[in-house]
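Co-fold these.
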Amino acid sequence: MSVGIVVFPGSNCDRDMAWALEGVLGMPTRFLWHEDTGLEDIDAVVLPGGFSYGDYLRCGALAGHAPLLHAVHAFAADGGPVLGICNGFQILTEMGLLPGALTRNRDLHFICEPCELIVQPGSCRLLQGYGEDAKVTFPIAHGEGCYQCPPETLVDLEQKGQLVLRYSRNPNGSVLDIAGVCNEQGNVLGLMPHPERACDPLLGGDDGQSLLKALLA
Amino acid sequence: MHRKMPDGSSGCQDRGIRHLFLARFHARVQVQLRPSVLDPAGEATRAAAGRLGVEGLQTLRIGKAVELSLDADSEDQARQQVQLLCDRLLANPVTENWTMSLEEQKA
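Predicted complex below.
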């Protein structure tokens, strides 16, 4: 059992993620280069944060067409767990695995601070370790985290319980305070906050451990 | 407009010389945020324009212009290729609309 972390040119949270998974939680972890074509024996995929391809064109737009992501599409369709954090969330929306889009923060600032989130796990596999309406604190660090989608999509997402993570205090202007969204099947989760930076009590909290452990549950 | 082979046929199987019968097109794609999407950068720029003393400015929306040239058998084919590029890569349909203009470049 191992987790694959996809590395793009410009990824910068890939090693943080590996440290949290393997160093803190003891979960076998491998880096996957974005130009590879197969996932081989990987059991869960993480798209880490960063600035893939320098955020050229739009955040996540070019990464969404990387060769390895064809394999990630198929992996997700087969029910494999896929987690996209920050830039990884942007990539998941650009490649069509999650609805909506992430745009410039309302106040145009890059925001880097701890954020309290409200969890409504619904059928999201990676959030089953948290209770309904549980409050967790993960750091955010983004300039383009304002979640937007068409109103009819929003109604649909809410009815199906896919709006699984919301900010207690909205930092970036996201509609309905959305911080994270999962797909209808519950195996693909994207969120702007960084659970991998909330795994070691020395760094101020370990609320993220349950989410990362669920990758290989 | 389809370029014809010297023998009058419309296609060419030999890719080695196919390029000799292609026309070159120039396209300009304009990508713009949908009207319903907030444009905080545009708003900030509009506010700065006011401080500059520009009067009467009502709206300011920032988009992207992409210029490209491509070789194709016909204008229809060139248009299809650019449409594919816009739909799949240059614009995000959730937040952006696009328009394009296309013309053949004369040698």
